[in-house]
Amino acid sequence: MQLLNGKALAGTIRNEIREEVGQLISKGQRPPKLVAVLVGSDGPSQTYVGAKEKDCTEVGFDSEVLHLSEDISEAELLNTVEQLNEDAGVDGFIVQLPLPSHMNDQRILEAIRADKDVDGFHPENVGKMALGLQGFVPATPAGIVELLKRHQIDTEGKLCVVIGRSSIVGMPMALLMGKNAQPGNCTVVQTHSRTKDLKGICAQADILIAALGRPRFVGEEMVKEGAVVIDVGISRIEDPARKSGFRLVGDVDFEAVAQKCSYITPVPGGVGPMTRTALLQNTLQAYYRHQEK
Ligand code: NAD
User: Which residue of 137, 212, 229, 230 sits with most ligand 1 atoms within 8 Å of its CB, as the best mutation to test the pocket?
Assistant: First the structure.
């Protein structure tokens, strides 16, 4: 079994981006800029946004966090989105979800101009991804594709089973693995909470991508000998042995499955760091597209 070390690869990619940004600046150009809009004070959202800002600083991007009050109206948030759409100095921006319950997430996401939608959640970008046109791909599936690519994992003609169909992970993941590309060209089976005989289906997979959010759900009996296993899930479970009282686990029972598969991503240190890096790659892509105009 070989570990797909997302943390190490993400570090390599961040170094590459930092060098690229250094060259832009030495030519007198401005660095790319990413803005994160954070509404309210949800704990995990603050952590995610803080991490995104730190990543930007590390690669030399400009970044800004617009911290808005929990009780602003949807119209006020739409106004902020509009200002960011029009700001030529901003290459990409994200509105951190979840938003407060008095707001319609979809209405906000659809207000983001598609060429700045580095999260890849706007219907225009989702449509482009489905059609194989250039747009922004959501960070988690984009990071997984990059992980497979850089490890030169052959996916062509393989049976890929994706567990989960969310719009940010499972659905785009299945689309990308079925694309006429490398990585891609898989025969894809998308499974979900209503799937019958999930275990039997997973046990046939050459590539198994688990994104359901159920701690250690995928056991050894669900994995074919020699399969490639990508674990997207992140859950906190209690662990009295730790000072914090908890630890992070994935959707895969790592210890049991690792003995059987050819490649596997650890949690933490697998898909998570690749997701963060993919957002930087999307922002760089947005920057170049804006420079071309
Ligand atoms: P979600 O809750 O939106 O979707 C879960 C999907 O799993 C649904 O489509 C559902 O049909 C399916 N599902 C649920 N229970 C199932 C079951 N018993 N059998 C088969 N399918 C089942 O979750 P999400 O946003 O797609 O995230 C999934 C997991 O990935 C979560 O643990 C989340 O924290 C994690 N995640 C990690 C990253 C990362 O960067 N590593 C990024 C995004 C999400």
Answer: 212
What is the extent of the structural domain holding 214?
Answer: 139-272
Count the domains in the chain.
2
- Residue positions annotated with a catalytic role: 52, 96, 119
Q: What is the CA radius of gyration of the chain?
A: 19
- CATH number of the domain to which 154 belongs: 3.40.50.720
Write out pLDDT tens, residues 157-197: 999 999 999 999 999 999 999 999 999 999 999 999 999 99
CATH number of the domain enclosing 71: 3.40.50.10860
Pocket test for ligand 1, best of 190, 193, 229 (most atoms within 8 A of CB): 193
- Give the Å distance between the CA of 223 and the centre of ligand 1: 18
